[in-house]
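Discussion board: Methods & Data

I've been asked by a reviewer to show the raw model output for two of the constructs in my manuscript, not just the figures. I'm not sure how much to include, so I'm pasting the format here to get opinions. Each protein appears as its amino acid sequence followed by a line of discrete structure tokens. Is this the kind of thing reviewers expect to see in a supplement, or should I convert it first? Here is construct A:
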Amino acid sequence: MSRIVFSCIAVLLAASAFAVDLTDSQRAEIEARIAPVGESCMQGDNSCGGAAAAVASSGPRSGEDVYNAACMACHSTGAGGAPKVGDVAAWAERIAKGNDALYSSGVNGVAGTGMMAKGGCMNCSDEEVHAAVDYMVVGSQ
């Protein structure tokens, strides 16, 4: 029995090693598929363009922009129990707690609910999340 197990393990190891080796043609196909969104670089590969170019920021995004990009999926549908923007009754108790509590929920998330930190927008600054909260509050009073 152990001879069969050893043989199976040897075959699986050999097969997995083969699966990792890509031909130049396969690598080119993968790079062509990735090209519209990025560049594939292997450690030690000097042919890559170097460090990624910094994207110039035109300043913080508006509350509406952040809402549309990160918050709308849940706060327009009520997904995960999120209060819908415009639902005055659903927002009243939350708004009564004050801006600091709302900002904290937006930035840190709410344990035990579907509200994750920054609504999942990890490239949003705290100030942008605050602006999105303000946008939702104004639309829900």
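Construct B, same format:
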Amino acid sequence: MRKKLQDKMFEASYLFEFLISLIVGVAILIFAVVLVIDIVKDIKAFDSVASLVKILDDAIILAIGAELIKMLCKHTPETVIEVLAFALARQLIVGHEKPWENLITVVAIAILFGIRRFLLKKHDMVETPDGLVDNKTLEEARSEDTECIKF
């Protein structure tokens, strides 16, 4: 009885994550269209560096949202690291921080890439509705409708 309840709660959490990723995906599409419309509508207004920074900020936020959807769908350590790297890159590119804060951000990105390169291996476990599955059998798990719809 308890195992069945746990399985149902796990499946419900996957459905909830799918709903969240769907909402975020729709919001990303809407804001991407708004960004393109703003650029086309006010093309003469984009004559300063501040305009470029605003466009970059909006575009990077949309990219972070897309990475968030991947993270909700795949449940792998690699996707978490990618989301963190995008968020740090946004701060580095768009933020006007002090030089030592930029240095800390660069070091944090280097640490993330080091973790990805040296600590994450193919045998890292991935969470699926059926439990933990080795990455080697992940393709089998994905064929059972455990992955979100790709946008």
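Answer (T.O., handling editor elsewhere):
This is acceptable in a supplement if you add a one-line summary per construct. For B, something like: The first helix runs from residue 2 to 41.
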